[in-house]
Target: DUF4112 domain-containing protein
Amino acid sequence: MAHTASSSSPFTTRPSLDGTQIRRRVQRLRRLATLLDAAFTIPGTRVRWGLDTLIGALPVAGTAVMAIPSLYIIWEAYRMNVPGKIILRMLANVLVELLFDFVPVLGDLADTVYKANLRNIDLLERHFGMTVDVPSPPR
Model:
């Protein structure tokens, strides 16, 4: 069967979303990014790390596995009609982190400090004009 322009494909057809749907998607993606990049705190410090640091510590396989949710966030941005320029910046953020991941120890440190997924969510929120209520640190 020949592929026609009118046939449904996830690569050609992107849904039109209203503001509420976009907000919900971005909030869901922020929860995922937080789990990946900042779900846990190193006791006695303000340093946060996530599953990306933990699973990414496994040589090569950890890096490959953790690339999947990072690319999923970018896929969702594409599906929300985010401009290509922002998608490219998101890809660059993930690429920087992936390249560091191939260097033992330095890659784990980069995961903890760089937080590509949260950077990408920040790009989405800025694009959609969303503001995030960040709680004040305890005194």
